[in-house]
Specification:
single chain, alpha/beta, eight-stranded parallel sheet, five-stranded mixed sheet, 15 strands, about 40% helix
Length: about 350
């Protein structure tokens, strides 16, 4: 897939932009000063496939905790800053790999200039994170509280000019809204207007089931058009769900190879198995293996080996708690419900 050739920007031990892969990002939901818990969460996210992690900086304790956290993790850490340039400077001194600034609440040019100077000294990047819910007050008045993609671009443009005035171009851009179509249009506009790498996401997308749909609506077209250098699927859920969702989306648009594809039948009156339960168990099992394979879970013989031929390996119910495991359209093994997952995992290990 052809991807937009954006400026390359170094974030800790990762380089985004150019023709590099789309990196997965998430955010801790624990107060940053609780170092032990935050480190535990980040290490779990690393293992799942998170490439970049963001933490909130609400006070000096949070800012100073970054140093201890960085000593124990392996991925770049982004400090999320709102309202306070002082906290931004503390986070930079503590070793943050990147700073996120919100044009809606850090507007003073002198404060921004001090942050720029410090980032130049440390050679770290800044993400300008425009959020439709916290635009500068004058922008809200202009829009009569109706946020459009053009208004978000206008806000971003005004902010970028400050950075370029101070000869700072180590930037990453984000234009997030809770409305997926506003996000989609804003990112398309930004891709045409700027050469800086883009962090894409639909913010405040809601609880998992709703948020996955909303994020896919806004982000899948961008990815298919080659737009986006880092991604976050923002969910009202465990951050682990964000990472898994991002992997699945990237995989389905052809941008993440080392991941599985799970297909399962919608069930009907012929089904004599709890297909949902089995498919969920298989999905959880597959998360342990970085295998680019297609796996089918079918509830009856009609949708079994026959319709599962497109899969590399699969399971089909034959009734009366009897199952077959098949590969490339041929039956490998007959088994029962008690041994199904054990037998299936053994076959996965061989692939």
């Amino acid at each position: 897939m052809d991807r937009t050739n954006t400026k390359r920007v170094k974030i800790g031990n990762v380089v985004i932009g150019g023709q590099n892969k789309v990196y997965i990002q998430s955010m801790c939901n624990i107060k940053t000063s609780k170092v032990k818990s935050v480190v535990k969460q980040i290490l779990e996210l690393e293992e799942l496939g998170c490439d970049i992690i963001r933490v909130s900086v609400l006070d000096e304790k949070d800012a100073k905790a970054i140093k201890k956290i960085k000593e124990q993790i392996h991925i770049p850490l982004v400090a999320d800053i709102h309202f306070s340039s002082k906290l931004a400077l503390l986070a930079i001194d503590s070793g943050a790999s990147k700073i996120r600034l919100n044009p809606g609440n850090i507007e003073n040019e002198a404060d921004i200039a001090r942050i720029i100077t410090k980032c130049k000294e440390k050679d770290i990047a800044i993400r300008i994170g425009v959020n439709s819910g916290s635009l500068p007050k004058n922008k809200f008045k202009e829009a009569d509280y109706k946020v459009t993609s053009s208004l978000m671009i206008d806000t971003l443009d005004s902010y970028i000019k400050i950075f370029e005035k101070y000869d700072f171009d180590n930037l990453v851009l984000a234009l997030k809204s809770s409305h997926p179509l506003v996000c989609l249009e804003a990112y398309r506009m930004a891709s045409k207007k700027y050469s800086y790498p883009l962090h894409i996401g639909v913010t405040e997308s809601s609880i998992k089931d709703v948020g996955l749909i909303r994020s896919t609506v806004g982000l899948a077209p961008l990815l298919l058009e080659g737009i986006g250098d880092t991604i976050r699927i923002s969910l009202s859920d465990d951050p682990r769900e964000e990472v898994i969702a991002a992997k699945r989306l990237l995989h389905d648009v052809g941008l993440y190879d080392d991941y599985y594809t799970l297909i399962s039948c919608p069930t009907c009156g012929r089904t004599q198995a709890n297909t949902k339960k089995i498919a969920t168990s298989v999905m959880n099992l597959l998360e342990k293996y970085n295998k680019n394979i297609t796996v089918a879970v079918m509830g009856c013989v009609v949708n079994g080996v026959g319709e599962g031929k497109a899969a590399d390996i699969g399971i089909a119910c034959c009734g009366n708690k009897k199952y077959v495991i098949f590969k490339d359209g041929e039956i490998l093994k007959r088994t029962d419900l008690n041994n199904l997952l054990i037998d299936f995992e053994e076959e996965i290990k061989k692939m």
